[in-house]
Amino acid sequence: MTERYDCHYCKESLFGKKYVLREENPYCVKCYESLYSNTCEQCKKPIGCNTRDLSYKDRHWHEDCFMCFQCKRSLVDKPFSTKDEQLLCTECYSNEYSSKCHECKKTIMPGSRKMEHKGNSWHETCFTCQRCQQPIGTKSFIPKDNHNFCVPCYEKQFAMQCVHCKKPITTGGVTYHDQPWHKDCFLCTSCKQQLSGQRFTSRDDFAYCLNCFCNLYAKKCASCTTPISGLGGSKYISFEERQWHNDCFNCKKCSVSLVGRGFLTERDDILCPECGKDI
Fold this sequence. Notes:
Layout: E1 19-22, E2 25-28, H1 29-36, E3 53-56, E4 59-62, E5 80-83, E6 86-89, H2 90-97, E7 114-117, E8 120-123, E9 141-144, E10 147-150, H3 151-157, E11 160-161, E12 168-169, E13 174-176, E14 179-181, E15 200-203, E16 206-209, H4 210-217, E17 219-220, E18 227-228, E19 236-239, E20 242-245, E21 264-266, E22 269-271
Antiparallel strand pairs: 1-2, 3-4, 5-6, 7-8, 9-10, 11-12, 13-14, 15-16, 17-18, 19-20, 21-22
């Protein structure tokens, strides 16, 4: 007696009929499609055994239904993208959603490398130096007047040259006597300390920090012997080729200030009228 070979679900004989094995159990085509077939996202009909089932992220399509949402061209075995759960061919997605190159105005295709700066995008090959036309890539660059320049070209075309070292000034800098200097080059003529950011003065067109200028050129106070800079509006007293700080111009005996008052002299000393009346 011949062994029976029936559908696991409806128990009808499968002899001479197509069937599908699932977990080692045979099913007639009708039962299998009714129980296990996926529903096509596009046409909402079951995807039968005789049709290729295409899937993407747990969604399924008939082969003939797997197409671009906009242009309706088949996406079978082709690259595609999705937007709001809709399938789009690369071309339609690029035209609708991809960035446009700021230089050539063409679409920057998904997956291709692009360069971005201040909200604009470029193809990698379009992001070039305005002067030498070479791709900038990931190298440093300097924008100017809506154009981009590689650093060497910018320095050649626009950067001022330091009057001291003759090299381009790319950032910062100091202007002295209408001439540009690097901050590192603008130094005190005497002690060689940087003058940028601090008070300084000059003599014979040479710049000096205040300490050096005072030590080298300022007159000395006749009382305390320290330099009198006279800078920044500081006041001093001058009498017979001698000078005093305002705070040092005092009576030698009683130390009262003589600023704005009469005084007497006794050799190198200055005295108030009271102390000097017995001279």
